[in-house]
């Protein structure tokens, strides 16, 4: 098997120039527990850490021993603060974050009008890309707070379980383009300025949209655009600032996967996109890998099991036969994982990697989370 350079997460955590670690990957690969384990390890190594998760199953709160997590960072008790570190945790509330952005940058009257608008209510709760964008808004807020009061010197982000590896990186651009786009401005002032010459064509298109979407929806969008007009530029500016922050030497990305085809395919997309965008990549964490201390191949184990089963007193060997067959199954799993990881490393030999053994049970407390972090 081809071995890439080992990913040294201890060195990543220890580097005081690193202020933001972003854990990304497909859903179900252990991003949340990886983020939490990294945060705990960093805090106990002396970093003042905050971890932001997007975890509707609330696994992070459970593993950290916190009764609940919400949109406000809350301290985690029970960690070793001997090295001077601390740990806060929070879970993104997408709509609350969007509401906070509106309240912060609009007058109270405009904010009330926006909050009551049906189009905004749909946008802030279910529009594709909103969760990813609000994760970036929250990251920007945390970064600004860390700069202003020094409460944290490390921010760890557990990214949303996107449908595609590209959603998270593209969300700031997509939603800012929507909110700052020509379509909404056209709805707002269709017969003014540069749009005057297009008014006849626009009125034709507008009438067609009313028939397809309904007059009330178009009215809601126009009302939203009018109320939101003063915030258009702010979303564009913050999107640009977020992308700058992601590409700075203060940030690093950790891609998380499992030794499964779909997860490694998604990890490949992430690695390629990060490389193409010149975003800083520390490496790949492969969770739930398997190994064996017995150097007996699957074929050999099955042959031994068949020999024992063929004995006249085979009943006395039932336990040994079952153990050998289980070992054969495990060795086949290990061989399969090695083939998949070898395929990844062959195509991306420069990506540092660490393999994390599969745990016998779920991560449900600080002690288990600490053991997980120590295996990185």
What can you see in these coordinates?
It is a single chain. The chain is an alpha/beta fold. It has 2 domains: 9-293 and 337-374, P-loop containing nucleotide triphosphate hydrolases (Rossmann fold, 3-Layer(aba) Sandwich); 298-336, no CATH class. It contains 16 helices and 8 strands. An 8-stranded mixed β-sheet has the order 3-4-2-5-1-6-7-8, with helices on both faces. Helix 13 (261-276) links the parallel strand 6 (251-257) and strand 7 (281-289). Helix 4 (94-105) packs across helix 7 (130-149), helix 8 (167-179) runs antiparallel to helix 12 (232-246) and helix 14 (298-310) runs antiparallel to helix 15. The longest helix is centred in the C-terminal third of the chain and has 30 residues, at 318-347. Mean pLDDT is 82; it is low at 190-214.
Name its key features.
single chain, 376 residues, alpha/beta, Rossmann fold, 8-stranded mixed β-sheet, 16 helices, 8 strands, 12% strand, P-loop_NTPase, ATP binding, ArsA/GET3_ATPase-like
List the helices and strands and how they pair.
Blueprint: H1 9-14, E1 20-24, H2 31-44, E2 48-53, H3 59-64, E3 74-75, E4 86-91, H4 94-105, H5 108-116, H6 118-126, H7 130-149, E5 154-158, H8 167-179, H9 182-188, H10 199-213, H11 215-228, H12 232-246, E6 251-257, H13 261-276, E7 281-289, H14 298-310, H15 318-347, E8 353-357, H16 366-374
Parallel strand pairs: 1-5, 1-6, 2-4, 2-5, 6-7, 7-8
Antiparallel strand pairs: 3-4
Helix pairs in contact: 2-16, 4-7, 7-8, 7-12, 8-12, 9-11, 10-11, 14-15
